[in-house]
Amino acid sequence: MPQRLTKVRKDNERDVSLQDTIGLFQAKSVEGHVGQEPAEPGGNKAARHSPLVPLEHKCYADPDHCDAFFSALNSLRDEGLLLDCSLLLLGRPFGAHSLALASVSRVARGWLKSGQVTMGTHLPQPDVVGLDGKVTAVGLQAVLHFAYTGEARSGPEETGEVLEACGWLEVDRFTHCCMPVVVTDPLEVMKKAPSARCEREKNLRVIRELWEKGIGCDVKLQADGVSFQAHRVALAACGDFFRAMFLSGMKEAFQREVHMPTMPPTALSSLLGFIYSGSLLLSWDNVFEVTEAALRYQVLGALSLCQDFLVAEMDPDSCLDVLALAEAYGLGELAKKAEEFILSHFERVAARPKFLDLPAAQLAHLLAKDSLYVSSEVEVFRVVVAWLEEEWGARLPFLAELLKQVRFPLMAPRELQEVEVTAQILIQAPGCREILEGIRSARQPREISSCQPRTPNQVLVLVGGDHVKDDFSRRVPSAAVQFAHRFLAGMGLIRKVEWRALSHMPTPARFRHAMCVLNNQLYIFGGRKYYGQRDILKSVLRYDPAHDTWEELADMQQQRNNFAVVCLEGVMYAIGGNLDDTEYLDSVECYTHEDNTWRFTQPLPSALCGHAAAVYDGEIYISGGCDGQNHCLGSMWHYHPVLGCTPRAPMRGERAGHVMEVVCSHLYVAGGLYPLAGGFGDQLACESYDPASDSWGPVASLPMPHLSPASAVLNGHIYVLGGSSCQTCQDSHLVHCYDPQSDCWANVGMMQRAYADIAACVLLVPGHLRQ
Predict the structure, then answer these.
(1) How many degrees, rounded to 5, is the angle at CA 73 between CA 69 and CA 79?
(2) Which class for 237: exposed (0-12), middle (13-18), buried (19 or more C-beta within 10 A)?
(3) What is the DSSP letter of 152?
(4) Which member of 453, 709, 727, 761 has the lowest number of beta carbons within 10 Å of its beta carbon?
């Protein structure tokens, strides 16, 4: 066995393996749980009062539980199910659940205490209570409606009969609701008006008190020799399993004691507590067993709270257990959240010993994800080696498949050197020799790889632009290449972007240029180096952030600035622009990196400058801009390199000097200027285009002008940076972010200075720059 490359872990320091987690839900002492039967000689443990809650427990409550509970009770009553009380009035029976009636009536509670109503659903008929001469049908129906819904329903002509029924049945809360309120202020009347929801909550609290005291309980649930009393109708109202048990004719429907196999007493106690209150006390000590119990017995409200806890309290120590639980029981949304957490905190999770118990297939699945976050791709390789060393002989056959998920071309040269040294001892594994050759080729800076950067590791990068000197003497082109390391939120509305230097463009500095990214390589095209007619460029640069190297590529065939570049299937298209500030271009030329050459493709229908272009679903779209007569356009074109342009639905307004970005299935345009009588104004209105329906729709407007800004999409949000205002002629240092989900723009901070005619993209930068 080769020399170990990671720290040796003692066996007795190992956590329980992932595979063991599901089967080893922790069982705790059942002492002190509400609803548990008193101790019997030689038998069950006793509990008279609720225990003190451990500090690590947190209370999770379902705000809709009470409504769902009484809605289910009402449905059972409407269907005539589990009715244990028949209120007989002039020969007409009114079926009810004595538990529901007892939640509002002191008399009904007395029936339960005395045994006059036994709540015995095992009996052939419900218990009968005669009410002739005591109440009327109108009054009784109003009381029952109040018990099941919390609604104090009575008209003026019915008040007397309702008060009579409330008085005989001692329904004090309803009586209070029916008493006239002598208040002249309408707001005070509203304050004193009873809330049905509030009354239902009071009803449930009474039912819980009855359960805690064992009043009216008609079933004992046995779990591992421990008995818990309960009401059948309450169980049936909250769980599909219990409803089926008591209504399907199974033997349990007629038994006083029901055995709950595989149910830990602590889990059953928690479920009963939830049924009677809508809340759960959860901690990592009990959440797994409660989740399993809620699933097994289909108490969906409790299951939802358990999942809320698992998501909210998830950390690097628990996320793998949560994922195992979710996958074992088919909880898709929970599994998704757990996987997202693992991917977002990958290095911390991978440092836990239980991570080394992951099956090879699951590890490969995680490593293949674009959303995996690591400070550097070399960390992924180190994780693979650590996993391999845990069981060298058994895991060696899986090594090649795992190494295929490591994106070696994204590593810096010194990281690749480390990998190459380590890989010498891995070459004995099947299929690894070819991978080692790939590592060697990745060390060549000129090698173009099709390696996709991992999305969450990418950052917003700014390149070039021009700005006013600190002494305001003149404008200066910039050669800076910088990235947004962090977006910070301060007190109140204060937002800040932490910018860091990435590199420096070779001479000359440039602005009004275009950029695109292919395989994490940054391509910079044209622009201008200064402000004269002969300062417009046709040169092209390529920057490799992994190696921090710059390379000059073949020149475009024409000088261009104020133009657009897009990348489609590895080919880059330079579209329109202007040649010398007076001559606008209709030409389009494309670049292929394999042979480092440019060639012309189909031209535009007319010359175009200051437009925007983007690629969606393998198609090129071009919006707005100015034509050769300096007219601002609202056009939208679909461009094909061979067939040329096809018009699509025009924008709702004209614009030029704007940006266009793709998020999900829509294209968004923002910023720029629009024509006014005798000039131009700042275009704040924004729009989105749906290619499927060929239609435009308005979205939230920009809060501030951005003419010729930079833009990029990061984590599903559109960032618009800098530019200027055509009305004030002032440059902007602001960074605005648009969230398509909320249709809202937010000011997230500023650039280091006010840049105009700048360009932005998204790149994966070396890990050491982000530490």
Answers:
(1) 145
(2) buried
(3) -
(4) 727
For residue range 306-334, list pLDDT tens digits in order: 999 999 999 999 999 999 999 999 999 99
Which tokens is 627 given?
Answer: 């034509």
Domains of the chain with CATH codes: 31-61+217-313 (3.30.710.10), 65-209 (3.30.710.10), 455-770 (2.120.10.80)
First to last CA, the chain: 34
Q: What is the mean pLDDT of residues 83-87?
A: 87
Q: What is the rounded distance in angstroms from the CA atom of residue 625 to the CA atom of residue 608?
A: 6
Question: Does 445 score more than 70 pLDDT?
Answer: no
- CA-to-CA distance for 272 and 680, rounded, in angstroms? 70
Q: CA 15, CA 390: separation in Å to the nearest integer?
A: 14
Tally the C-alpha atoms within 13 A of residue 552's C-alpha that lie toward its C-beta: 7
Closest Cα to residue 147, out of 181, 196, 189? 196
Q: Any residues with CB less than 8 A from the CB of 271 and at least 6 apart, and which?
A: 239, 290, 293, 294, 297, 299, 302
The whole-angstrom separation of Cα 312 and Cα 304 is 12
Within 8 A by CB and 6+ apart from 627, the residues are 584, 606, 607, 608, 633
Cα distance between residue 220 and residue 217, in whole Å: 8
**From CA 719, how far away is CA 670, in angstroms rounded?**
10
Amino acid 60 reads Y
Alpha-helix residue ranges (DSSP H) falling in 122-185: 137-149, 159-169, 172-178
Q: How far is CA 572 from the centre of its chain?
A: 34
Give 53's DSSP letter. Answer: P
What pTM did the predictor assign?
Answer: 0.66
The C-alpha torsion from 296 through 299 and 304 to 310, rounded to 10°, is -40
Q: Tell me the residue type at 230.
A: A
Between CA 643 and CA 658 the distance in angstroms is 26
